[in-house]
Automatic annotation (TrEMBL):
Pfam families: UDPG_MGDP_dh, UDPG_MGDP_dh_C, UDPG_MGDP_dh_N
Protein name: Nucleotide sugar dehydrogenase
Family: Belongs to the UDP-glucose/GDP-mannose dehydrogenase family.
GO molecular function term, any single one: NAD binding
Higher taxonomy: Bacteria, Bacillati, Actinomycetota, Actinomycetes, Micrococcales
SMART domains with a match to the protein in the record: UDPG_MGDP_dh_C (SM00984)
């Protein structure tokens, strides 16, 4: 097949590489010229994705994959187009921001030719494929869905850093607008993906048809929103446990020892492209989902709550030297999308503290580029807030942070034996 992939980010580029590795001709489209240039010289444009550089080094010289900024070069006469342009949530209104996806859709529609399968993989609110993008493509292209082209939705279900492994591990969910569209999208993914044996599943691992685009859209939102609600529940338990002299981590370990309990871990922040965002996309079409809203609001409040606890213990944070350990939203991943480091800094600064940030994955210049003032381990500090559970922080002690008066461990990652004699607050641990 000839396949076009629109938007070569941390999901789109590995998908393009996967399709090319499966023996197909792939052209990727991206608006960033620097990204396109790097790909065409066989260089990964972002670090940390397992196998990506190795595969690019093989595919680019062989001509099986190339990148362009020109839709007219990639879209016409493609057998399939996969779109992975981002959809954001407006920080003020919590409404979906379709700016980039609308632009990508309009650009591909201008060059769409008959006979093409078009698949959206970006997480979308329920009904978006049918009600927003079907009429948009038809109006601009002059083609009719179900006759001249076929439209489907198939959510990406992978984590950055392990995309290729996840593509094999998890069933590929699909939903189309017609029977022929279903046949086409099933055949497409069966031709570009390979699946692991999964005896734990109720049916064979592979392409799973959910019947409609709406069901497929909801499946992605549901599985991610579940995680946010579960974390919200864990945080609620953790807040109660801390106030009542209980170690919630022991409670959760005990609960999860039987197969019907799957309580997640409490923490100071929920970050990343997915968990803080997709519940808002779900709420945009189901405003009555109070349990979803409550969990999202509670999780968003955790940075402020933990800093407030520090202030209560120290009396005041005015003029104190505070350090946040970890800029990345999760341990071992060099990514700051919706990272808790930003609301933690805001809460500290609002109370008069000066704030610096340490992260072993980022250089000082990279931290400054994110608007963060870097901290050098060993410099004097009054308050430390552990935000990211990097492996490097598990062995940290007051000796590494001269003068520290309090540690707020937002991930239960520090070793209590190393902090004897220095006050330490842990999310979900007894005060």
């Amino acid at each position: 097949m000839r396949i076009a992939v629109v938007a070569l980010g941390k999901i789109g580029l590995p998908l393009a590489v996967q399709f090319a590795s499966s023996g197909h001709e792939v052209v990727g489209v991206d608006v960033n010229q620097a990204t396109v240039d790097k790909i065409n010289t066989g260089q990964e444009p972002f670090p940390g994705e397992a196998e990506l550089q190795e595969r690019l080094s093989e595919l680019i010289p062989e001509g099986r994959l190339r990148a362009t900024t020109d839709y007219s070069e990639a879209i016409p006469h493609a057998d399939a187009i996969v779109i992975v342009a981002p959809v954001f949530v407006d920080e003020q209104t919590s409404e979906p921001d379709f700016t980039y996806m609308d632009s990508a859709t309009k650009s591909l529609a201008e060059h769409l030719t008959a006979g093409t399968l078009v698949v959206y993989e970006t997480t979308l609110p329920v009904g978006t494929t049918r009600n927003r993008y079907k009429p948009m493509i038809e109006e601009i292209s002059g083609l009719t869905e179900g006759v001249d082209f076929h439209l489907a939705y198939s959510p990406e279900r992978v984590l950055t850093g392990r995309v290729f492994a996840d593509l094999q591990k998890y069933p590929k969910l699909i939903g189309a607008l017609s029977a022929e569209g279903t046949r086409r999208v099933r055949n497409f993914y069966e031709a570009v993906l390979q699946f692991d044996e999964r005896p734990d599943l109720s049916r064979a691992n592979g392409v799973w048809d959910l019947g409609t685009t709406e069901a497929s859209e909801m499946a992605k939102l549901a599985e991610t929103t579940y995680r946010d609600v579960n974390i919200g529940l864990a945080n609620q338990f953790g807040l109660f446990a801390s106030a009542n002299g209980i170690d919630v981590h022991k409670v959760i370990e005990a609960c999860n020892s039987q197969p019907y309990s799957h309580i997640h871990r409490p923490g100071i922040a929920v970050g990343g492209h997915c968990i803080p965002v997709y519940p808002r996309l779900y709420l945009s079409t189901d405003p009555e989902a109070e349990i979803v809203r409550t969990a999202r609001d509670l999780n968003a409040s955790m940075p402020e709550r933990m800093v407030a606890r520090a202030e209560a213990l120290l009396g005041s944070l005015e003029g104190l030297r505070a350090v946040v350990l970890g800029a990345a939203y999760r341990g071992g991943v060099k990514e700051t999308a919706f990272s808790g480091v930003f609301p933690i800094m805001d809460a500290l600064r609002a109370r008069g503290a000066t704030v610096r940030v340490h992260d072993p994955l980022y250089s000082d210049d990279e931290l400054r580029g994110l608007g963060l003032e870097p901290y050098d381990m060993g410099d004097p500090v009054d308050l430390v807030v552990l935000h990211t559970d990097h492996a490097e922080y598990r062995e940290i002690s007051p000796a590494d942070l001269p003068g520290v008066k309090l540690c707020v461990d937002g991930r239960a990652a520090t070793d209590p034996a190393r902090w004897v004699g220095t006050p330490r607050i842990v999310v979900g641990a007894a005060e």
